[in-house]
Design brief:
The complex is a heterodimer of chains A (about 160) and B (about 325). Chain A is of the alpha+beta class and about 160 residues long. Chain A contains five helices and seven strands. Chain B has two domains: about 1-60, no CATH class; about 65-270, no CATH class. Chain B has helices at about 1-15, 20-30, 35-45, 50-60, 65-85, 90-105, 140-145, 150-165, 165-175, 175-185, 190-205, 210-225, 235-240, 250-255, 260-270, 285-295; strands at about 115-120, 125-130, 135-140. The longest helix of chain B is centred in the first third of the chain and has 18 residues, at about 65-85. Classes of the chains: A alpha+beta (about 160), B mainly alpha (about 325). The interface between A and B is large, with 85 and 105 residues. Chain A: This is Ligand-binding protein SH3. Chain A: It comes from Novimethylophilus kurashikiensis. Chain A: Keywords: Signal.
């Protein structure tokens, strides 16, 4: 992987990590730390515009219009798709040019497959490719072993009750 | 025969008089009449109309797929997705997604399904499921994720679609029952394959019922947490969806799912009463994956680039 690719990617990540516009979904407290018992920095009111800086566990780090920084419950935020977001990120999903090195010439789209509605309409079913999935199958033991390297262990958490 | 037809008609009228789906289900459960007979009666005695289609759909919905039929359905539906976009043929990346996916699936009520996970080689952002244990994620979505718990959240959402038979039930309502039965019995293969392909295209293009998506979100966060991940991976992905400009690469995702802010609100309610453990947020293997799925600049623009290594050499330097 070229260093310049990483630089481009890091810039994109940084662009996303900083100053994503968000709004407060319901009245809540801005906390000094990502914890319920942390001290309150400010009261946030519904609809208040803030900047989303990142997530920690179930908490989002935000900055208020008054310049105060702190944490809000992650699910107490709303977002609005904004044109001010990096257009390079937008291009990524269609052209795959995230790792391009500063130049913004379009990658030739010939041969770039998609799963848009139009792509699905035109698609000819490919049963052979379904068969190709067998090449990548892992056993339950392999999955468990790999999970262990990621420090994962099953947790005793009940699934939510099915709504009547 | 006449008696059976009369019973069928009685069932049909019971259905018409009440709530269509529930009425049909209960009525059929309480009789020995099978759906073929009811369908026949409906065909014989009802004029063509929207009511007739609704009634037939309700009757179809009472059919229970066998695991074999559900697998067949999923295989054909997967063939449609893979017809639109092939697999990303990087064995290391594909196996990684299978490791993560299967680990999560092992924490469900159906660990023994033949689970198959695949990366679709497209920069479009989306994930899909098909009945019987098939789950797909696009290369474009993998690139946008920040850590493994986000991947776990996406996969757990799709796994829930499989476990709760969301696509299988939707395909039933679209009339796939006889087509699938035909395929399993290896009757008129090409016609049935084509018919099923069109039904699958329709479903993937228009999406599931919104309630199924909320169900997959709700169960997905709990499932990811059961597998030892932070429960907040999926909410984090939804935040990303909500703040992303809706370009063409995300069009289908947005067209087939509820508004991401509404999904976040629903999770706020669903997760409110549970004190989730911290869980795992990321793993070194995820960072490896993101290198593997990265799009490279064309060779002409990268003269200085060294040949890409997909695996670290096991040999120590001489």
């Amino acid at each position: 992987m070229k260093i310049s690719c990483w630089a481009a990617l890091l810039m994109l990540v940084a662009a996303q990590a900083h100053a994503t516009p968000a709004s407060v979904a319901r009245g809540s407290e801005l906390k000094s730390k990502p914890a319920l018992d942390a001290t309150k920095v400010a009261d946030l009111s519904e609809g208040e515009q803030v900047e989303h800086l990142g997530n920690e566990g179930g908490w989002s780090k935000i900055k208020t219009a008054q310049g105060k920084t702190g944490y809000i419950r992650m699910l107490n935020l709303h977002f609005a798709a904004s044109a001010s977001n990096s257009s390079a990120v937008a291009g990524l999903s269609t052209l795959g040019n995230v790792a391009r090195t500063g130049s913004n010439t379009n990658v030739a789209t010939t041969g770039v497959k998609g799963v848009t509605k139009e792509d699905l309409d035109k698609a000819t079913p490919n049963p052979e490719e379904v068969g190709n999935m067998e090449r990548y199958v892992v056993s339950a033991d392999e999955a468990r072993k790999s999970a262990k390297t990621a420090k994962l262990s099953p947790q005793d958490i009940a699934m939510p009750e099915v709504k009547p | 025969m006449k008696t059976k037809l009369l019973i069928s008609l009685a069932v049909a009228s019971a259905v018409m008089s009440g709530c269509v789906t529930d009425g049909a289900t209960d009525a059929l459960k309480n009789t020995n009449v099978n759906r073929d007979q009811v369908n026949k009666a409906v065909d014989t005695f009802m004029p063509d109309s929207g009511y007739k289609q609704a009634l037939k759909g309700a009757v179809e919905a009472t059919h229970t797929w066998t695991p074999e039929e559900e697998r067949q359905l999923g295989t054909n539906m997967s063939a449609v997705l893979l017809g639109a976009s092939p697999l990303y043929k990087n064995p290391q990346a594909e196996r990684y997604v299978n490791e993560v996916g299967l680990w999560i699936a092992l924490q469900t009520t159906q660990p023994d399904l033949p689970w198959r996970f695949g990366i679709l080689d497209t920069p479009n952002v989306n994930a899909f499921a098909a009945p019987g244990g098939y789950v797909f994620i696009t290369r474009g979505l993998l690139l946008r994720l920040h850590n493994e718990s986000e991947l776990a959240g996406v996969l757990a959402h799709e796994i829930t679609h499989v476990i709760n038979h969301h696509h299988a039930n939707a395909m039933k309502k679209r009339g796939a029952t006889d087509v699938v039965a035909g395929l399993v019995q290896q009757k008129s293969g090409s016609a049935n394959t084509a018919a099923l392909g069109n039904l699958a295209k329709g479903l993937y293009s228009s999406g599931l019922d919104k309630s199924d998506e909320y169900d997959a979100d709700r169960n997905g966060v709990y499932l990811a947490a059961r597998a030892g991940y932070s429960a907040y991976g999926l909410p984090s992905v939804l935040q990303m969806y909500a703040s992303t400009p809706q370009d063409a690469g995300l069009q289908l995702l947005f067209a087939t799912h509820p508004d991401p802010n509404a999904r976040l609100d629903a999770l706020n309610t669903a997760m409110d009463k549970t004190n989730f453990p911290k869980g795992v947020e990321d793993a070194a293997r995820f960072k490896q994956l993101q290198k593997l799925v990265q799009y490279e600049a064309p060779a002409s623009e990268a003269p200085a680039a060294a040949p890409k290594k997909t695996k670290k050499s096991k040999k120590s330097p001489a």
